[in-house]
Amino acid sequence: MTSSWEPRVEAGPTRPDPKGFPVGMTVAAAIAFVILIGLGVWQLQRLKWKEALLAGIARAEAAQPRPLEPVLDRLALGRDEEFVRVKVTCPGLARAPALELYSLREGQIGARLISACPVVSGAYRSILVDRGFIPDTVAARPPPDPASRDPIEVTGVLRPGERGNFTTPPATTSKWYLHDARRMAAALHADAPTAPLFLMAETSTNPDFKALIPAPFPVDIPNRHLEYALTWFGLAGALAGVYGAAVFKRMRG
């Protein structure tokens, strides 16, 4: 005769199913995927900007210089005059007071000299001229003489200033770090209003001072943004593939 009594076995705690959907891994993979795609899109935007920059440089280099004042009048009416090649006569520019803008050219640290040039325009009374680059190995500077009115004819290209960010050092009395037309014009006591574009000189403002090198454009402008974009998109695709394989293997057990 069998006993009706049987020992009762308590069930232990339920263990998680090893084949369950990997939520944590999915969230991490999704965040990484979005970041990689975002970097790829950003590089495509940089590609568009770089192509426009290169096209503008090529257009400016091939164009004949126009008189500056009519170009400034069109600028005041809302016309886009970036990369327009112009010419203007600046009285006293070779001995004008100058601000020094930190710059890097062909791997060499130096400074660009920024001075004000008075103009006769219906909209503006002055424009800032980027006179060129001086390497840090040269301590001398063209001696300023505010009383000088010797005319200097300048040919160059109109360019806007740069936008800084949180990494841009603040300007000091001896060094600037951005082409900032408004603040530079105030520091130079330029006649107001000052044009919002810079005249990047391609002809010498100081023929007797060879260390000052007119440099309206960078010597070499690499354009590898499409390569970078494809790299980021490729990494995103590889991540998706690895994630898919990992989930498939996990769900199959």
> Strand percentage, roughly?
15-25%
How far is it from the N-terminal to the C-terminal residue, by CA?
46 Å
How many domain modules?
Answer: 2
Number of H- or I-type helical stretches: 4
What does this structure look like?
- The protein is of the alpha/beta class and 253 residues long.
- The chain folds into 2 domains: 21-62 and 225-253; 65-201, no CATH class.
- The chain is 34% helix and 21% strand.
- It has a 7-stranded mixed β-sheet with strand order 1-2-6-7-5-4-3, sandwiched between helices.
- It starts with 22 loop residues before the first helix and ends with a helix.
Would you spell out the secondary-structure blueprint of this structure?
Layout: H1 23-62, E1 66-67, H2 68-76, E2 85-91, E3 99-105, E4 108-118, E5 126-135, E6 151-159, H3 181-188, E7 194-201, H4 225-252
Helix pairs in contact: 1-4
Summarize the structure.
By secondary structure, this protein is of the alpha/beta class. The protein has four helices and seven strands.
